[in-house]
């Protein structure tokens, strides 16, 4: 491969043929010619998949062959493809005032998204209920066997976070007194649902009174009496929003790569206003669930496009910080949601208040431009030129200060036809599809096992009085997510993206395996005492130790799995090429949605299969630990712009090489081909002084 390129450099213009397809993955037609590597520079992390750009070929003296013009038209200037190295510095990087304004405009909607993400915890919380006319005393006497019929409704997941991500929310807290029985209040980690015979007295009623714990006077459950035989409809309503998000991520991601980020964002805003406000006017639970599906679909378009725009606006050193700020803003919405519910008092008012702030985003039609990086990557140079001039005008810059000559090169390429790519093209690659699949599995595992840890922690709520309160449950989960994001900022700074993801996945696997295995061993060895007194002491000590260990492992697991999910989404945004970035993000976010979807499905089946669910995800964590080692490191690296750039993001060692040490595995940039060495030596006069026949620089 390197020899063929050197032949072209030596042979000059006459009869030059376009380079063949890359060996590490077949490229779609039209992208092979634009397969010049990025011009970004490796950062201090020492890892990354950047390849040194080849020297530009020197045209031979004499006339130019007619085929040269068509060959040149197949590949745009390397200067224009190197967005982070040439175009972004020309615009002032993130130091320009206009760029800072645009980043701020991507942060503000994160607060509204946070409200929508965690609204199910309040709209669909299953309250305590008792037969109407039985009096308030029934709440203490009989509701404990009926009001919390599913006892495991602690995983009211709604959507993936804005960094990927963020976290999930749990609305209901589990059984109030389902554990106090003849055995002295001993509650297993996973309480079984109450017997149908115990529920008969309250379920024979035709009307109920409700004790809602979320600060609302009325919610969806109490509005349409979704209890007893109709309780399954609550779970259907819960995952209708999730299913809408999954489909939204997949479909809007492909559309955003084809028509642009801005149109998808604006149309998603318009339709979420329509569907979101209509949800508040629902006349039955079927209408509510259907409209929530479409609301989730539109919300996915907003989350996805804002995430991509935020990444594409930033220089390499600022991407993670900017993304984490958006995550903290979304968490602010999570922390403010209980106060908003207490202020509204009615679920319809709450739903309308959550959606109405999106009206402000209609102004984005006139103030938010298309992604300049996407315009350059898809070779829409005419629109890119107008947008660059708009940037320079907003930043009060002089276009003549273009040191690298971006504008003159752009003028030469104005006649090019746009080249847009769909995410399905990734199937024909080798490295890129592997990276995306690994991150999809990581995202699925992180968000899926998060519910297992949350369910295990909430199962001990009777023995831990703090967890009996809805607000204690809610803010415990939110605080764990906040601590996880703060830890990510520190870990990623020192270990990088891949090292941080590996560390958090190892913590998740350890917490899961210890919770499943160690706690069973404690119970096993406590069942063989020498006397009856030792038996009672051993059982009591065993239960106490198991509860403490289980809660500890659950908190550690929730902490680490949240970081795994968020980092997987961010990692995908960095290593996926600009031309298909939204499609790749859509795949990883949809995988996260599938992981979260297991929570309401398990609740719908009354917690049947919960233990197997946890075991499967625990095994997936072990597989993910191995697969993470196959990923590249993207810290301080330029974003790949086309599929070929994404293919060149190859795996690097976790630890940097010592000075003078020869690596055992060569990267694509270092592969040597000696098959045409004699021909290359003959044409050596056309090569630069510091280049050799195998493509490596001479010392």
UniProtKB/TrEMBL annotation:
Entry membrane topology: Multi-pass membrane protein
InterPro entries to which the protein is assigned, alphabetical: MFS_dom, MFS_sugar_transport-like, MFS_trans_sf, Sugar_transporter_CS
Highest rank taxon of the organism: Eukaryota
Keywords for the protein's UniProt record, in alphabetical order: Membrane, Transmembrane, Transmembrane helix
GO molecular function, one term: transmembrane transporter activity
UniProt-listed PROSITE patterns: MFS, SUGAR_TRANSPORT_1
Gene Ontology CC terms, in alphabetical order: endomembrane system; membrane
Name assigned to this protein: Solute carrier family 22 member 23 isoform X1
Source lineage: Eukaryota, Metazoa, Chordata, Craniata, Vertebrata
Gene that encodes the chain: SLC22A23
């Amino acid at each position: 491969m390197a020899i063929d390129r050197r032949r072209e450099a030596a042979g000059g213009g006459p009869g030059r043929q376009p380079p063949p397809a890359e060996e590490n993955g077949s490229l779609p037609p039209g992208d092979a010619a634009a397969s010049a590597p990025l011009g970004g520079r490796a950062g201090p992390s020492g890892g990354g998949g950047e390849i040194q750009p080849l020297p530009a070929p020197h045209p031979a003296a004499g006339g130019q062959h007619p085929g040269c013009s068509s060959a040149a038209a197949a590949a745009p200037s390397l200067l224009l493809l190197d967005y982070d190295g040439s175009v972004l510095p020309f615009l002032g990087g993130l130091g320009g005032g206009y760029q800072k304004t645009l980043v701020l405009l991507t942060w503000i909607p994160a607060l509204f998204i946070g409200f929508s993400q965690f609204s199910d915890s309040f709209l669909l919380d299953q309250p305590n209920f008792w037969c109407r006319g039985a009096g308030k005393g029934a709440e203490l006497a009989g509701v404990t066997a009926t009001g919390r019929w599913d006892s495991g409704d602690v995983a009211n997941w709604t959507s993936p976070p804005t960094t990927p991500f963020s976290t999930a929310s749990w609305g209901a807290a589990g059984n109030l007194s389902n554990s106090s029985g003849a055995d002295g209040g001993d509650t297993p980690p996973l309480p079984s649902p109450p017997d149908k015979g115990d529920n008969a007295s309250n379920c024979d009623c035709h009307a109920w009174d409700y004790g809602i714990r979320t600060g609302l006077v009325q919610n969806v459950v109490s509005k349409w009496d979704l209890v007893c035989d109709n309780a399954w409809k609550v779970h259907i309503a819960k995952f209708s929003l999730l299913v809408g998000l999954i489909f939204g991520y997949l479909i809007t991601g492909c559309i955003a790569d084809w028509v642009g980020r801005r149109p998808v964002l604006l149309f998603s805003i318009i339709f979420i206003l329509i569907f979101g406000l209509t949800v508040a006017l629902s006349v039955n639970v079927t209408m509510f669930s259907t409209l929530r599906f479409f609301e989730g679909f539109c919300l996915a378009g907003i989350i996805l496009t804002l995430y991509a725009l935020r990444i594409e606006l930033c220089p390499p050193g600022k991407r993670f910080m900017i993304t984490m700020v958006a995550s903290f803003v979304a968490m602010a919405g999570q922390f403010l949601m209980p106060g908003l519910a207490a202020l509204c008092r009615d679920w319809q008012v709450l739903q309308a208040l959550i959606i109405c702030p999106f009206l402000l985003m209609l102004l984005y039609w006139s103030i938010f431009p298309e992604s300049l990086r996407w315009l350059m990557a898809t070779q829409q140079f005419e629109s890119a030129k107008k947008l660059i001039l708009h940037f320079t005008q907003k930043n009060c810059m002089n276009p003549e200060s273009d040191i690298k000559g971006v504008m003159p090169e752009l003028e030469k390429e104005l006649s090019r036809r746009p080249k847009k790519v769909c995410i399905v093209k990734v199937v024909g690659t080798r490295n890129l599809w592997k990276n995306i699949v690994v991150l999809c599995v990581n995202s699925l595992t992180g968000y899926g096992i998060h519910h297992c840890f949350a369910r295990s922690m909430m199962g001990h709520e009777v023995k831990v009085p703090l967890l009996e309160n809805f607000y204690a449950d809610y803010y415990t989960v939110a605080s764990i997510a906040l601590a996880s994001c703060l830890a990510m900022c520190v870990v990623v700074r020192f270990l990088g993206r891949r090292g941080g993801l590996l560390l958090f996945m190892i913590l998740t696997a350890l917490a899961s395996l210890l919770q499943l295995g160690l706690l069973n061993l404690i119970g096993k060895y406590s069942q063989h005492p020498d006397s009856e007194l030792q038996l009672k002491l051993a059982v009591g000590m065993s239960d106490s130790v198991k509860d403490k260990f289980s809660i500890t492992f659950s908190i550690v697991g929730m902490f680490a799995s949240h970081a795994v999910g968020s980092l997987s989404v961010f990692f995908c945004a960095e290593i996926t090429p600009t031309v298909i970035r939204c499609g790749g993000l859509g795949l990883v976010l949809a995988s996260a949605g599938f992981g979260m979807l297991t929570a309401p499905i398990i609740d719908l089946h009354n917690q049947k299969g919960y233990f197997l669910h946890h075991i499967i995800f625990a095994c997936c964590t072990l597989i993910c630990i191995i697969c993470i080692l196959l990923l590249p490191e993207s810290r301080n690296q330029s974003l790949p712009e086309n599929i070929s750039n994404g293919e060149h993001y190859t795996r690097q060692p976790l630890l940097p090489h010592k000075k003078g040490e020869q690596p055992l595995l060569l990267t694509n940039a270092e592969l040597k081909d000696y098959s045409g060495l004699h021909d290359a030596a003959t044409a050596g006069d056309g090569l630069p002084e510091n280049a050799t026949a195998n493509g490596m620089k001479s010392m």
